[in-house]
Design brief:
CATH topology: Rossmann fold
Order of helices and strands: HEHEHEH
Helix content: 40-55%
Strand order of the largest sheet: 2-1-3
CATH architecture: 3-Layer(aba) Sandwich
Shape: globular
Largest sheet: 3 strands, parallel
Oligomer: single chain
Structural class: alpha/beta
CATH superfamily: Nitrogenase molybdenum iron protein domain
Distance between the termini: 29 Å
Length: 99
């Protein structure tokens, strides 16, 4: 529960502290669908959210796809669970995205 509250506060603070990007929405990528839902609720119309793992997938064993690298290259923010949940597939994607 603390992680969700911290996540919501982080997204809110980032959105408030962003310089005036008139028409640009914050591009957020999440590792799981539940984090994407939280980000959508917090960000509303000011962000676009994409999730890498689908709700039916085990987040420990997501198949890393080249399309994930493209999503991460365009991301302004990455929201992940942490606690080594994505340790097997996310670090190589982040490294290859160079973002």
């Amino acid at each position: 529960m603390k992680i969700k509250i911290c996540l919501a506060l982080l997204v809110t603070l980032l959105m408030v502290s962003l310089p005036a990007r008139a028409d640009g929405k914050l591009n957020v990528v999440t590792t799981t669908e539940d984090l994407a839902a939280i980000a959508r609720e917090v960000g509303g119309d000011h962000i676009t959210v994409e999730s890498l793992a689908r709700g039916y997938q085990d987040p420990h064993f997501v198949e890393a796809k080249p399309s994930f690298i493209l999503k991460l290259q365009k991301a302004d923010m990455l929201i992940l669970v942490g606690r080594d949940l994505e340790i097997g597939w996310l670090p190589p994607l982040i490294q290859q995205s160079r973002n």
